[in-house]
Amino acid sequence: MEKVQSDIESGKGPKSIPHWKLLTQQGIVTPEIVNWKYDGKGTEEDPYVVEWIEDDPRNPMRWPQVKKWASALMMAFATLVVSFCSSAFSGGMF
Fold first, then answer.
1. Who contacts 31 (Cβ-Cβ below 8 Å, separation ≥6)?
2. 31, 45, 47, 86: which is deepest, by most CB within 10 A?
3. 7-31 per-position pLDDT tens digit
4. How far apart are CA 15 and CA 23, in angstroms?
């Protein structure tokens, strides 16, 4: 396991997480996530507000245009394939 050098007190740390690490390790917690001041107290009366932290590499609004289009096209293709596969059995019945 590699050791990441970061200065927690200055708020500076790793700004990006490698793509394959994001895919294989869904529970990555960076120093920025731990030290972020979330709105709310975490109680039932005042729950935490879910928001993207600054410079979060998982935020899809910060993805490059190519990655956004690739994701959209993959989802569209997956939807098309599912609809074709679900109707393939009915064509073979007659």
1. 6, 8, 13, 14
2. 31
3. 544 545 446 677 777 778 777 777 7
4. 17
